[in-house]
Design a protein that fits this description.
This protein has 74 residues and is mainly α. The chain contains five helices and no strands. Helix 1 packs across helix 3 and helix 1 crosses helix 4.
Length: 74
């Protein structure tokens, strides 16, 4: 299992939204941040988890959704 504890709260949010299939634009609008910031967060998540591509992050988000999601959410 990847080290999800090393992610910040914002990185967890971005990872969860990646798992929902959102691209950078809609993800940025959902979080109220710039699209470039989303790209940076996604890159940090990919790097921190030792992944190579964004699709791997999406798979991690789907598989580990319950771990990433705060209690009571979704």
């Amino acid at each position: 299992m990847p080290d999800l504890d090393g992610l910040t709260a914002r990185e967890r949010q971005v990872l969860l939204l990646l798992g929902d299939g959102l691209s950078n634009g809609p993800l940025a609008r959902r979080l109220g941040i710039a699209e470039g910031t989303v790209k940076a967060h996604a890159a940090y998540v990919i790097g921190k988890l030792g992944l190579r591509i964004r699709l791997e992050a999406v798979v991690i988000a789907v598989i580990h959704h319950d771990v990433l999601c705060p209690a009571g959410a979704r």
